[in-house]
Design goal:
The structure is a homodimer of 330-residue chains. Chain A has helices spanning 7-14, 18-26, 33-46, 53-59, 75-89, 104-116, 135-139, 163-175, 195-207, 223-234, 248-261, 294-309, and strands spanning 64-69, 94-99, 121-124, 144-147, 156-161, 181-185, 216-218, 242-245, 270-275, 288-291, 317-321, 323-325. The first copy, chain A, has 330 residues and is α/β, with parallel strands linked by helices. The longest helix of chain A has 16 residues, at 294-309. Residues 50-58 of chain A have low confidence and may be disordered. The interface between A and B is large, with 39 and 39 residues. Strand 2 of chain A pairs antiparallel with strand 2 of chain B, so a sheet runs across the interface.
Chain lengths: 330, 330
């Protein structure tokens, strides 16, 4: 990639101060015609890019795009951040990642900062936020994209299209003789309920498998939630012989729990995750999972964000296809 | 933790607009005595905290603290971010994580944004940045802490104290009959050279082990660098029987490489990482490593940052002790 020419270099080439260059670009203060011409010539000669500095000066808006997520320890979001950044770098934007810990107060605080600091945009995976929490951003004219399984109003959305993959997962469990399926699900108070749980229930019904209520354990989408959830499942009157997990990090927690209690995966219990993070293929046994490609989610979110920056006002919803990947935990 | 009272709630309680509350707090516009009194009463009654909103209004400074890191896919930094955030939350600061991909241009851009946006502070692990790159932040009065193995001027530092742990690691290799040690090191153009490599060389000499130059492979501190580095080591005229890695993510890459080529760890080759990220104890075989506690690095960086916010001007250097953890790859 070409090195970006700085405003200081433009100023030096034009024989003026950096402040003068900024006045020429922003029009905030009057500049003599001769000076303006010298600056504009230097800009053309050096190939100085008006983005993002000039845009930032003109609009008072930052070059920062916030990625607001519930769990920075989940590698899915690291991949999402990298992908988003790769797409937005060419447009002069820097991605900063902000971890809410799935706390609603932090989610609200961070959206407020995004408005206060006039961020260039925000991509968010909300967890406990109100569905209409993006109205203020819209009023402030700040582009926003939500990456989630549930609908939020007034905002572009990137959602998984995972019904077929989940059906394949449950069909495999049925075909391999599993009968009682447990679920480490999301928390009961998450915004919009738990669409992943609903998809699992639908697919289980289609495969002729039962998911007894006592085997649905709510959790926080974390590795710790997997450990705790596994303990609760093992304490059930009738233990499950398979566990569907809300994501891979939770599935890894289930594997921790199984190892500590001498439960064999997959002989005693099958485990299926969601996301296919890097480490899913590295843990032993290798994790069977629903692959949800973070890089494609990031690319899609970036595209939606850039369209909004370019003036698109109508709302868009995009789906990214998830795929079932059978490995060694089933 | 107590829920923070918002400015909107203060405005509602005082029967005024949020803008009026902000004028009372900032003094930016005149407000009638009666209105001021109503707002101040509401602030006291609701227990509205002047931090960080009022500070932000008074100083024009953001409540955001930037954590600028070279590789967001390395879980060490996710732990560091969480710890930093836990410490700073009570002080009304939000941590945003910014990934440079170890590119010098991105490092410089992000420091410029930190100044432009008047961030409340920055914690950074530089990779290719000039050692004096923090002078502009100092001039702007923005608190800064560097977490690194090398010295940077004009800025507080958190460094590992790992010499003893590295000596233990090399002593174990010698005691278990290893003779030729390879190193997946950092890149040749990293700022300040490669102090981890130097510590490994010193410890190898003390343990009577040789590290031939052809077995020192430079890399980018990534999992991919581990895969590539392992290939180069296996192509050496005399292969190593042990590999020291610059961090755990690189060591995991070495394990990928070994698996793909049928090389047995630890029978054919011992592997030692650095950091002790979560996944070090989850991969199979479990990774032997130099444990460098990210949570303590985060806590220390937060303390140094808060001291600067409170007015400390003299420079501090703090050391966090690293410990050798022997598992199954040695």
């Amino acid at each position: 990639m070409q090195r970006r020419v700085t405003m200081t270099e433009v100023a030096r080439a034009a024989g003026v101060s950096s402040a003068t260059v900024s006045y020429v670009l922003s029009g905030k203060r009057p500049v003599s015609d001769g000076t303006r011409q010298a600056v504009e010539e230097a800009i053309v000669r050096l190939g100085f890019s008006l983005n993002p500095v000039a845009r930032s000066l003109r609009t008072g808006r930052s070059t920062l795009v916030a990625l607001v997520i519930p769990d920075i320890a989940n590698p899915f979001y690291a991949h999402l951040a990298s992908s988003l950044q790769d797409e937005l770098r060419a447009h002069g934007c820097h991605v900063v990642v902000s971890n809410t810990g799935a706390r609603r107060e932090a989610e609200e605080d961070l959206l407020r900062e995004v408005v206060n600091q006039r961020f260039a945009g925000v991509v968010m995976t909300p967890f406990r936020l109100d569905r209409d929490a993006f109205q203020e951003l819209r009023r402030a004219g700040i582009p926003a994209v939500v990456s989630a399984d549930v609908e939020f109003s007034d905002v572009d959305l990137v959602m998984p299209d995972s019904a077929a993959a989940v059906r394949q997962a449950l069909a495999l469990l049925a075909a391999s003789g599993r009968r009682r399926v447990g679920v480490i699900a999301g928390p009961r108070d998450a915004t919009g309920g738990d669409p992943r749980l609903q998809r699992i229930k639908d697919a289980a019904a289609a495969a002729g498998l039962s998911i007894p209520e006592e085997l649905i354990v709510p959790g926080e989408h974390t590795r710790r939630a997997g450990v705790l959830g596994f303990r609760r499942l093992m304490a059930a009157r009738h233990r499950p012989d398979a566990v569907m997990c809300v994501n891979d990090v939770t599935a890894v927690g289930v594997m921790d729990g199984a190892e500590h209690t001498g439960v064999d995966i997959p002989a005693d219990i099958a485990v299926i995750g969601h996301d296919d993070i890097d480490f899913a293929s590295l843990v032993r046994p290798r994790l069977t999972t629903i692959s949800y490609p973070a890089h494609q989610v990031g690319r899609t979110a970036a595209r939606l964000l850039l369209q909004q920056m370019d003036g698109r006002a109508s709302r868009r919803v995009e789906h990214v296809v998830a795929e079932f990947v059978a490995r060694s935990t089933t």
